[in-house]
Design a protein that fits this description.
It contains 19 helices and 10 strands. By secondary structure, it is of the alpha/beta class. The strands form 2 sheets. Strands 2-1-3-4-5 form a 5-stranded parallel beta sheet, with helices on both faces. The radius of gyration is 29 Å and the shape is elongated.
């Protein structure tokens, strides 16, 4: 790849920095002049053996942009088969104008620059983003050479933004799913809300239950379920039923007291980000976790990009390569041996059985459960609880004390505001092997059964 690059007076250092990176990537780079008028001269000087012509500015001048996409200049570049790339060096642009500083020109206009003595008419551009889109512009914007080259390698800002938005959506998948599903619930006047931890997420095919919004996520505890329920009841007045999907370990779960980095990330990347609430977590830990994850600077993406991505998958949380099996460590219904299944169940229940020691969490979760029931009662919304199924391998090792504690908490906390309850823990409609991806999470086949059971439960009662 051969590039011709020049710059205005304020971007000389950036021109050299970008050139250095391109050369390190084995580009053939002709480093042109620096000056206030070199961009115009080089439209005609750039040689036909160049693939792209990069011209760099440290300010946005409506006149030079219109000039670049004028018929005269575009015809000259087409004749040479050279692609124009305008680069804006935004190091000195205002921090407060962050979208603008990183290339998102939506909503911005450009006026005639103070030193524009060449435009015969007013060159003002009312819609900068629309103008660049209309002219199929390849442009890059950034305060550092690495970002500019990153955009250049992607094919310009528009392509880079789409790729970066996809990466951000995948990285913060549950955050965006929570955000946009909540908004969809408002828009579509949802009637039923399902919350809870991973069993309720894996076990239900959302689209098969009319009027349902499923905001259950991996490792969701009672505290964050309660925040979701409270927010949904405030924002979605059409709700008639709230369902809390649980297991016998749910009364002992507190995500904010976890020492597991993956669990901590559930707060920093989902609940803390959405609610601004970290429960018992030390805020210092949240910053440390973000640093450990190597999170990029929070460069803003156009909201429509993220909502459009959600719209492509809103009917199924397990979309494309992100299917149920891809989130499992086991080939449960395949070649796995009986011995291996029992060993996996033993390892999982060893951890779950130790949760019985978390008495403080148990008591706090009892209070949270009571408040959920009372709030649903205040809102005249029916509250239901469903225990999701687990297979015989898991049931074999689970401490019976967990069920006893669960049942006792339910009796005490729902004394004033009763809830409908369905316990499928050992339901024999589910095959111990063919309906699971592991000891207690349903696979696609199991989810079909569970969805039908929940649907009928809602319809009949």
């Amino acid at each position: 790849m051969k590039a011709w690059i020049n710059a205005d007076n304020g971007s000389h250092d950036m021109k050299l920095a970008v050139s250095e990176i391109l050369v390190s990537r084995e580009w053939d780079v002709h480093i042109g002049e620096t000056g206030s008028n070199v961009h115009y001269k080089d439209y005609f000087n750039v040689t036909e053996d160049c693939d792209i012509y990069i011209t760099m500015y440290n300010g946005f001048c409506a006149g030079t942009v219109r000039e670049a996409y004028s018929p005269e200049i575009q015809e000259e570049l087409r004749r040479k088969k050279v692609r124009l790339v305008i680069v804006w060096d935004s190091r000195e642009w205002l921090e407060g104008m962050k979208p603008y500083r990183y290339g998102n020109f939506r909503g911005y206009h450009a006026r005639r620059a103070w030193d524009d003595n060449f435009s015969k008419e007013d060159p003002s551009i009312e819609d900068v983003w629309g103008f660049l889109r209309e002219h199929d512009a390849v442009y890059c914007v950034g305060p550092d050479a690495e970002l500019i080259v990153e955009q250049l390698a992607a094919g310009g800002y528009f392509s880079w933004e789409a790729e970066a938005a996809n990466r951000a959506f995948s990285r913060d998948y549950d955050y965006y799913w929570l955000k946009y599903t909540m908004e969809r619930g408002v828009r579509e006047q949802a009637q039923t809300l399902l919350t809870g931890h991973s069993l309720a997420r894996f076990g239900i095919n959302d689209a098969q239950i009319p009027g349902l919004v499923n905001l259950a996520f991996l490792s969701q505890d009672y505290y964050y379920s309660s925040l979701i329920i409270h927010s949904a009841l405030e924002r979605i007045p059409s709700l008639r039923t709230v369902i809390l999907g649980v297991s016998y370990i749910s009364p002992f779960m507190d995500l904010s007291r976890s020492k597991n980095q993956g669990e901590i990330a559930r707060i920093t990347q989902v609940y803390g980000k959405y609610f601004g609430d970290y429960h018992h977590m030390d805020r210092g830990e949240t910053h440390a976790q973000a640093a450990a994850d190597g999170e990029p600077e929070d460069r803003p993406f156009d909201e429509r990009l993220m909502s459009d991505l959600y719209e492509t998958m809103k009917s199924d949380y397990f979309f494309g390569e992100r299917n149920r099996q891809s989130l499992s460590d086991f080939d449960w219904s395949g070649s796995m041996t009986e011995e291996a299944r029992f060993e996996a169940a033993r390892a999982r229940t060893d951890f779950h059985n130790r949760l019985l020691n978390h008495r403080e969490t148990y008591e706090e979760n009892g209070e949270i459960l009571t408040r959920i029931a009372e709030y649903c009662g205040e809102k005249k919304v029916e509250f239901r609880i469903v225990v999701f199924p687990s297979n015989r391998y898991y049931r074999h090792f689970l401490d019976p004390g967990l069920k006893e504690a669960y049942d006792d908490q339910l009796r005490r906390c729902l004394a004033k505001e009763p809830a409908r309850h369905m316990d499928l823990f050992d339901d024999d409609r589910f095959d111990n092997i063919l309906d699971y991806i592991d000891t207690d999470h349903l696979n696609d086949r199991g989810a079909v059964k569970m969805t039908e059971i929940l649907k009928r439960w809602l319809e009949v009662e």
